[in-house]
Amino acid sequence: MTTINRQWRLRARPVGMPTAETWEFAETPVPAPGDGQVVARACWLSVDPYMRGRISAGPSYARPVEPGEVMQGGGVGVVVASRNPALKRGDIVESMAWGWQDYATLDPRGTRKVDPALGPMRHALGLLGMPGLTAYFAFLDVGAPRVGDVVVVSSASGAVGQVVGQIANLMGCRAIAIAGGAEKLAWCRELGYDAAIDYKAGTLREQLAAATPAGVDVYFDNTAGPIFDAVMERINLRARIVQCGTIDTYNRPGQPDVGLRHHRHMLVKRARWQGFLFTDYVHRTDEGLERLSAWLREGRLRYREDIVDGIERMPEALLRVLSGANFGKQLVRVSPEP
Amino acid sequence: MTTINRQWRLRARPVGMPTAETWEFAETPVPAPGDGQVVARACWLSVDPYMRGRISAGPSYARPVEPGEVMQGGGVGVVVASRNPALKRGDIVESMAWGWQDYATLDPRGTRKVDPALGPMRHALGLLGMPGLTAYFAFLDVGAPRVGDVVVVSSASGAVGQVVGQIANLMGCRAIAIAGGAEKLAWCRELGYDAAIDYKAGTLREQLAAATPAGVDVYFDNTAGPIFDAVMERINLRARIVQCGTIDTYNRPGQPDVGLRHHRHMLVKRARWQGFLFTDYVHRTDEGLERLSAWLREGRLRYREDIVDGIERMPEALLRVLSGANFGKQLVRVSPEP
Predict the structure, then answer these.
(1) Are B281 and B12 in contact (CB under 8 A)?
(2) In CA terms, which of A89, B105, B118, B177 is 20 to 30 Å from A258?
(3) Residues 215-234, chain A: which have Cβ within 8 Å of B?
(4) Is B68 helix (H, G, I), strand (E, B) or coil?
């Protein structure tokens, strides 16, 4: 086991798309836990679209990373030192406040002990973690699906989207995927999506019209931008729109997001458009995990992960996600599982 | 009593703002009721922003008026001939399907017998009719106000807005009016709005910031457009946005509505934005009228109307509404009350 703690720190806020120069790699000693804390060794680090927001200065739902600070992010790993009576050496823990580093010093608050019986450890960052729980609560609570609803999901093969499509199926809905490229489309169909639409083909509106002859009842949006506009054209009376991600709005160098406005359409369709953040549902984690892990055990949920090896490749992995090059939930393998 | 029926018919669909040439005045014989119908003489006709939508060809929530047809609109008046056992000569009736004419032939469905004890007959088109009921249900059901909420209302002195502000006060909210010009602002303050903002002053954002230091919890929007954008900047976590009208989007000659997009903000604030149409609440009319008329009797609601005399001035009255020149609920007095 290494005795140094490798970290990625923010070097400077990027304008537009981040680059390899946005972060710098550093080495520090492995920390010791303070009272109530544990220190844990990362096996897997998570890479998620929200990270782009954390390196912008603008106000968002969380404090941004300051230049010089360790980059924020979630991870799962093994407790190596504990001053928290509820956690002992060898326990598996997950935290959204891990940071891009080998060794995290974790406060009790926000640290979740992971039950290895529920599934592979890395799922604590995906299907059985924030993305899976986001899919579960955002779709069921905010999307409010009914049997027979037509559900459209953007970024449909992504960390959240692939779970939404499968839950939609389990709920008796007709699920339509929007994703980029033949390989992702094929995977969406394999997952049980009733139709899959390629936003890169240049015929998004036509494909949508063909796939949703009866309109759209629930739109689970992970992108915003032109994909959003195309789906809005097809919403039904009392449609529900879940704003779960806005990856299309990232990486614009400072300019405001200008485009089609949907006020009239919202009124005419009496649609409901609502923002979602898992933060508001953390207290219902156990409820969601129970359901998701049961479906996983029963073989009713599958989950695709895109694995990059080595902490030194964290920036590269995030750029994959921001450009849509990843295929499934993006993870970085940092050290062997125990 | 006249024995001819004067009517306004749509001559041609306008491009942009309608003009006097948009409609043509015609005279026809007074009709006789068919089985189950009544014929009623208009005392008051209603003029509302939605009428602009009805003369566009584009899809909306209702069938548009075709050129040559009588212009659609609501009215209240006196039954002069009845073949409906539930209504007799002399009864006061209100209908959204009156049309711009002296004499309407009314089907049982959609015809409401008005109880003169509830308030002045003309209120059946305003405070105790569609606009008042819209304010009541849209604000309470969709806006979901809580005591202490900051509520911003656009078109705050209009047919709907003035009721929303007063109900917000009755519910223990802090109500902020947006209206145009000193006279309307003064009236809003008189109604009990805690602050009033002049959108014509060119300092909308600054005025909003000063009036809502603690942000905005409910935005009751009647305008869309730049006013909407300015309020969105100030919404609080879990804000509710009621899309009740979109008067700023009317009268644009065919071009798409392009402007600031709010996807990221919707997500970060976990806001809920929902369209409202009274159609969905017609079955709760009695419930709303009971409450509104009780408040009126108790002196807790006031209602300002803008009255134009003579059916020949219907187009002029609508242009007043579309340009914001009206002050309060726009009505046209067509014939004396019985």
Answers:
(1) no
(2) B177
(3) 221, 224-225, 228
(4) coil
